[in-house]
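dumping these here so i dont lose them again. two proteins, back to back, each one seq then structure tokens. dont judge the mess
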Amino acid sequence: MKVDLFDFHLPEELIAQTPLLERTSSKLMVLDRKTGKVDHAIFREVKDYLKAGDCLVLNDTRVLPARLFGEKEGTGAKIEVLLLKQQEGDVWETLIKPAKRVKVGTRIVFGDGLLTAVCTGTADHGGRVLAFQYEGIFYEVLEQLGEMPLPPYIKEQLDDQDRYQTVFARERGSAAAPTAGLHFTEELLEEIKRIGVHIAFITLHVGLGTFRPVSVDDINEHEMHSEFYQVTEGTARVLNEVRENGGRIISVGTTSTRTLETIATANNGRFKESSGWTDIFIYPGYEFKAIDGMITNFHLPKSTLIMLVSALAGRENVLNAYNEAVAQRYRFFSFGDAMLIL
């Protein structure tokens, strides 16, 4: 299966650079995955498409202010560091710009010495392993010095850092936001609960691989990056009960989808408390075992995310819907509009 099958024309001006003032005021496209029929709504109306007994599954990961700007000790050369994955303790896998200036043994200083790091090794795709040194609590130092790691296609500065966090973000460790969840407010979630819809949380810490383009022609040759996930016993119990009672499991975002499908695949369609690393790659031909629907944003051409959506709703249905979204001037990507697939 060729990557070019998932290409479409996207005018650059439709890439949303800033979030809307009101989270729930985004457009919502509703796609019937069996017929390909499309409806247009506003996101706050998502509750009208849900029923008592359904379950919405949200990813409660919290984005770290993971972009740091420092100087190479001795030369003063400017170094940009992006935290990707905590290996153990204060040792992190990172991306560095410019990487060629940071060799094993290089020391980097941030914030006039509030935080320092020594390069202790290399990682895949030109990454570097850094051991950090500081006084106090690492995450508090990071909040003081770090910036939100916005995707590379967003050129505007983000005035309110919280707009790149979901209102239910709890578990620190993500390099990017689970952006389908950005449309929800606490008030909307309460309205959905009052209908009789269950709200369940999983955790998947999004890695930067989510932005990395597919660089091979054949999908089967693409390797996904592993990301850490965790599902509690309480969430697993709710999901099993919803399934047994005939309710629909609707994942919010591709991250929730990948987590649920990882667990259901390992447990013959059941859900159980678990944690670990997943590199599941979902593309057309995949048989879904966990979800009945999904809320997601509009994704990059030829990305693994549009492949996942196409696996659920059919490639032609999805590309037709995307062309409709372009014609209707929907906003794309992280700060863009949403799609509900049922």
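---- next one ----
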Amino acid sequence: MCSHYEAPAPHRVAETFDVEPFKQGKLELYPGYIGPFIRRVEHVDAESPAPVEALSGSFGLIPTWSKDTKIARSTYNCRSETASQKPSFRAAWRKAQHCIIPAAAIYEPDWRSGKSIATRITRADDELLGIAGLWEQWRDPGTGKILHSYTMLTINADDHPFMRDYHKPQDEKRMVVILPKGLYGDWLKAPAGDSMEFMRPYPADRMAVAM
């Protein structure tokens, strides 16, 4: 599970996803912080190539029924196996509100020494990580302002040659869903019925520990 990741510099996001440049605050992101996500522009013909846009939102999905933003502290990751049933995620999953969260690196705890060591993980080729996620739009009941938010989808990683080394030994191993670049467009326009087809482990030899 990923509760800390490094957002890329805005120009890298703009170049990778062919979107307009945008302003980004903090690059070290934790639940509740504001970061970028990529989504398909709405109201586009499903049969045509969809333009995409970069938006800023809360790292941690805030469902429409939430009274405040505190829930983001526990909704930053979503188990893909139960996304369609969990109250916080099921609406976004049902409506196929797919997004991609760009990351320069993610951080996971390595417990092999007996204590937690935060480890910076990147793609081996140093390209951006494109993490599959869900997005939502929430209206503040007090001010009426709109806040976007997102969550990272995860899968089991007990048998993954790379990610099985992270988290506590007795815990189930999980990993975020890192999309191959060639599937970015397909994921963003996929209907809900096809969502699970994208929930696949990223190849271990394409991941690396980086300083």
